[in-house]
Amino acid sequence: MLTSRRFRLSLLRLPLSFCSLLISLLLSACGGGDDEMDSDPEPTQTAAIILPGAISDQGWNQMGYLGLEKIGKETGAEIRFAENVPAANWDRVARSFAEEGVDVLILHGLEFTEIAEKYAPQFPDTHFIVNNSIRPLDDKNLTSIEIRTWEASFLAGILAGQMTESGICGAVGGNDYPLFIAQAEGYRLGARSANPEAKTQIVFTGSNFDTIKAKEAAQAQIESGADIIWQLANSAGLGVIEACREAGVDVFGWGIDQRHVAPEVVITTQKVDVGAACAEVGIQILQGTFEGGSVSFGVESEAAGLGEYREDVPQEYRDVVEKWRQAIADGLIEIPLMKTRDASEGLEPLSLP
């Protein structure tokens, strides 16, 4: 469903004589000079986003929409969005927005990369932004935004490795996209770096929307001994949180702050604020200050890291996480990007400098 805040007043169907009379009356009321007629208002800028899920999913899609809202508030641009768009319609909806002449079109997810590359040359007046593109995009009207999410998931692993009492950390993902795998592997490497004896179980359900599958996967990990679970399954992640709430097992939120979903078990949220990132870029584009190129945000920024902690998370654990975050931000430690399953298994645990 396309949603727009644009309203039009059309005189095309009114009789010509009436239109002439109306224009004469307007000129008389305004003083009738040519100068007034020449001072047309500035055309309204527009920004739009295409979302594969709902703006109320308390995760990935809601983040994107909040970013769009910020663009509108900061620039006065008219905003439009399409939510719950199935994959079969992505191409058509993207083309539709571009044909309408939107100034900025945000494609919310790596799945849109090829669509952006297809239409950017055809619609040079629309600036295409791809959030979490599968590769850097750098053209006059084509920009990719990368959130180095694997750095943030590594920090989640550092916390999990300290928090676990059973020595078993769980991880439930939705679709096994390369960047989802990279985050799961980053989490496992982080857990082992904090606790070399920790074991991490990782499972992908194959769906970012099936909460039942996600819940069952989490329950299976809990039954096998996991006492802390990381999740990345978009809206399906709520099923993981529900399983942990029922079992009294600690769990990580993902994306935006999810502590309110189950405050008794959500220990913190892996912050991936792509909304803030795309808002920053979108505002610069509309204000004419964007320098171009692909853009990357890591734990040195507010776009990635860990959010607020549950009150009972020990301060000493928080301090350790902060030491790792600062070392990564300063470039003293590089967290590898591991896009294949079990890639972290062959790596030695990392250590602080």
TrEMBL record:
Q: Which residues form the ABC transporter substrate-binding protein PnrA-like domain?
A: 45-336
Residue spans crossing the bilayer: none
Task: Classify the source by domain of life.
Answer: Bacteria
Give the bilayer topology. Answer: Lipid-anchor
Q: Name one GO cellular component term.
A: plasma membrane
Q: Where in the cell is it found?
A: Cell membrane
One of the Pfam families matching this protein, by short name: Bmp
Entry keyword set: Cell membrane, Lipoprotein, Membrane, Signal
Indicate whether Oxidoreductase appears among the record's keywords.
no
The residues forming the signal peptide are: 1-29
Q: Give the similarity note.
A: Belongs to the BMP lipoprotein family.
Would you tell me the protein name for this molecule?
BMP family protein
Whose protein is this, by species?
A: Pelagicoccus albus
Q: What is the lineage of its organism?
A: Bacteria, Pseudomonadati, Verrucomicrobiota, Opitutia, Puniceicoccales
